[in-house]
Specification:
The protein contains 26 helices and 26 strands. By secondary structure, the protein is α/β, with parallel strands linked by helices. Helix 23 packs across helix 24 and helix 23 packs across helix 25.
Length: 654
């Protein structure tokens, strides 16, 4: 604006100056310039020393600094630093502590501890240890100096109004910016208050002395004290509870259970070091229990719950007590557990019980029995599938058991019956803790605890090539071996009493002869066989007392058992022979049609003959038949064929 009326020439004292200035108005940027340039200023010149002010365009950054924080004010001379600091303080920007700094300042520990510097354009003078530089720009000539210049050139009346208006607009603009910042702060505080009040827990924030800065609506409910009354008061005045005071100011615990105004509350605390603030969270313990009960009820409704606990495992023998103790210890970890034991020893009960005393007891418990399902169904049940993955896939796809068990426990029962193909997928899931649905293209992370069980000798299956050794070691991180009933005979009377009470309300007794017979039995079917025997005797008895005549086959059970072959022979006679005959006949029929005897065809052919077997069972049985010399197993188109010995076997059994 002044350039239209006045010719202005600028000089810097540290560069070349004119030989002499005459009949001029000389404006110094600072009184420090006077000594440096006096020799070139003629007495005919009028001199005005500028009064300087802060460039308010950049002060917004200063308001963002934390109250009480120390900053360096960096300028070229001590006097200009002090003058600028004085201007800032006089303006009202006094929430921070300014430490003057200029070239030649002796650096102290105080200086090194300061990480923020403010400078009026002298960025190159800022020391290296500073992390944050706030450049507020060169200090401006203030309006009083401008008016002195106008007065000198007799332009005050002509330009004074315009300059005053421009200055006023700048002040209004600055005020508007400050007002907008204030509005944003108020809105942010109101938003944060709504968020804190919306939390279903009591929240209190206090400084190191216990003075309250946050007190939400739930705390009003718990204490009966309004937030407006609690704010800025000491917590000891608001919450008169000695246990709370001890917890806050004397103890180091992170949580404490307290009762305040009949509310059972769990109090948690954490400290914000930089702010010097402690946050307290008051959780309603009764509501938390109700939520857990509701979650438990939801799991029950879905069937995703472990029904049994260690109390359901009947017995007080030393062996069973020790097994329970070991199982309880294993439950406290997150590691996989392999439960091994004969059929009927209660592997499912132990799996349920382990889940129920683990940290996941309020999370899902899902089980799958590999011997009860065909392999194709097992895969979709375990891993789920995407929509359109196969014919009959339901719309939207389906979550598998691993996904549904997320956060909880999955029980893999009869793991010894899993095919090698499925073993490979299971191994990857256990290693990576992620699954991919059938027909899917993305991996889904899961968090499940693995429990597995089998009544088979997995080491023998490994030697036969029927079970992966790496999967075995992944499953058997922890191991629980269940004792057979014949090794804990002392528990038999308790079990008999339990099963009789479970199955009848009548006052039925057992003769000593029957009890002795039951105690001497080997029980190869273990507890399940004992339960079945009790059911049989209760069904056939004719009196209120069970006698020897009520035992199965009307003979003492120990004699009956001892007359039988060993379990291995029993299995061979009762199960394997049937499977062998059916498989050999199926191979014969398929070969006769000129077709290759694949495992799938053998499954279908066996089903047509009234025997259902899984692919794994087919594979195991084929290896046994090959070992006996009844069949030859070829690769590719050759397939499986009867040998002459196999044909002779079939003919001899016609």
């Amino acid at each position: 604006m002044l350039g239209k009326y006045i010719s202005i020439t600028s000089y810097a004292s540290e560069t070349s100056l004119p030989n002499m200035l005459t009949n001029k108005l000389i404006v110094y940027s600072s009184h420090l310039i006077d000594e440096e340039v006096r020799h070139v200023v003629d007495d005919s010149c009028e001199v005005i020393v500028s009064r300087r002010t802060t460039n308010y365009q950049y002060i917004e950054q200063l308001f963002q600094l934390k109250e009480g924080s120390k900053v360096l004010y960096v300028n070229d001379f001590p006097e200009t630093s002090e003058e600028a600091i004085h201007t800032l303080l006089k303006t009202g920007i006094d929430h921070i502590e300014y430490i003057p700094y200029h070239p030649g300042t002796a650096v102290t520990q105080e200086h090194l501890g300061i990480k923020t510097a403010i400078t009026p354009g002298e960025v190159h003078l800022v020391p290296d240890h500073i992390d944050t530089i706030i450049n507020i720009g060169v200090r401006l000539i203030d309006i009083t100096t401008i008016m002195d210049i106008l007065e000198h050139f007799h332009l005050k009346e002509q330009l004074g109004g315009d300059i005053s208006d421009r200055y006023t607009r700048k002040i209004i603009e600055l005020s508007q910016n400050i007002s907008d910042m204030h509005k944003q702060t108020v809105q942010l505080n109101e938003h944060l208050k709504q968020v804190v009040d919306g939390v279903n827990d009591g929240i209190v924030a206090m400084d190191t002395n216990g003075n309250i800065s946050v007190f939400n609506q739930m705390m009003e409910q718990y204490t009966g004290v309004f937030a407006t009354h609690a704010m800025n008061k000491n917590i000891k005045q608001i919450l008169k509870n000695d246990q709370l005071h001890s917890f806050l100011f004397k103890e180091n615990d992170r949580s404490r259970f307290l009762t305040i105004n009949h509310y059972n509350l769990m109090v948690y605390r954490f400290h914000l070091e930089q702010e010097g603030t402690t946050i307290l969270i008051f959780k309603n313990a009764d509501e938390t229990i109700s939520i857990e009960k509701a979650a438990r009820h939801d799991l029950v409704q879905k069937g995703y719950i472990a029904k049994y606990t260690f109390d359901h495992i009947i017995g007080n023998s030393k062996m069973i007590d020790n097994t329970k103790k070991i199982a309880t210890k294993l439950a406290k970890t997150e590691l996989p557990v392999l439960i091994q034991g004969e059929s009927g020893t209660g592997k499912e009960l132990y799996a349920n019980s382990i889940h129920n005393v683990s940290s996941r007891n309020y999370q899902p418990f899902l089980a799958i029995n590999f011997s009860a399902l065909p392999e194709e169904l097992i895969e979709s049940e375990l891993f789920g599938y995407e929509e359109g993955a196969f014919t009959g896939a339901q719309k939207g796809g389906k979550k598998g058991l691993f996904e549904q068990a997320d956060g909880g426990t999955i029980f893999l029962d009869e793991i010894g019956d899993v095919s090698l193909k499925l073993q490979a997928r299971l191994l990857r899931v256990i290693q990576e803790m992620e699954i991919r649905r059938i027909g899917g293209n993305k991996n889904i992370p899961i968090n499940v605890r693995i429990l597995a069980a089998t009544n088979k000798d997995l080491m023998s299956l490994i030697r036969e090539g029927q079970f992966r050794e790496d999967l075995y070691h992944r499953l058997k991180v922890l191991c629980l071996q269940l004792p057979p009933l014949r090794e804990r005979v002392a528990d038999i009377p308790l079990l008999i009493e339990h099963f009789m009470k479970e199955q009848t309300n009548e006052p039925v007794t057992i003769t000593q002869e029957v009890m002795d017979s039951l105690m001497k039995t080997n029980w190869y079917g273990n507890v399940r066989e004992l339960k079945n025997t009790i059911s049989y005797m209760l069904a056939v008895r004719e009196k209120e007392q069970i006698t020897l005549e009520d035992l199965p086959n009307a003979a003492p059970l120990n004699e009956y058992i001892y007359q039988q072959p060993s379990p291995t022979v029993v299995e061979e006679d009762w199960v394997n022979v049937k499977r062998n005959d059916t498989l050999l006949q199926s191979i014969y029929e398929i070969n006769k049609r000129g077709e290759r005897a694949s495992r799938q065809k053998l499954i279908n052919e066996s089903m047509s003959q009234g025997l259902t077997m899984t692919e794994q069972q087919i594979r195991t049985q084929l290896h046994k038949l090959q070992h006996k010399g009844y069949i030859s197993i070829g690769r590719g188109r050759t397939g499986t064929n009867l040998t002459a010995q196999g044909v002779n076997y079939l003919e001899s059994n016609d």
